[in-house]
Amino acid sequence: MRTIDDIAEEYEFLDGDERYRLLIELGRELDPMPDALKTDATQVRGCSASVWVYPTRQQGDGGDRLHFLADSNAAITKGIVALVIAAVQDRPPAEVAGTDIAALLEPFDLRNQLSSNRTQGVPNMIALIRETAARIAAGG
Q1: Looking at residue 8, which CATH number applies to its domain?
Q2: Catalytic: 128?
Q3: pTM of the model
Q4: How confident is the model over 49-106, as pLDDT tens digits?
Q5: Least buried of 31, 45, 78, 99, by fewest C-beta within 10 Å?
């Protein structure tokens, strides 16, 4: 998965339609999420489309890291969740919990680039990711 900085650099040089295509492409690059993980417990509330986010723990250099699986039934929304995840993918739980994901998304100006329908669930995606990371970092 590309880093949030790499995506921002590319995004900056694109116009409206190309930005949509980039988001769709990001969504396609997500690791596949097994249907068995698409449950009520992993569903993000408040999104106009169905969105699921599931953290997995992986041992990497330097210890525990969170690797998120995610999916949506809408291509643009799936791209948005991929963008959110790119900000924290494969990082230690405590780092994920402390990351200001909303600030990292500011260069994308999603509120002005996309309809409010498409972006209304972003704060809920961010909250779910950070709360899950905080719980895991605390040993839960």
Answers
A1: 3.90.1010.10
A2: no
A3: 0.89
A4: 899 999 998 886 777 899 999 999 999 899 999 999 999 999 999 999 999 999 999 9
A5: 45
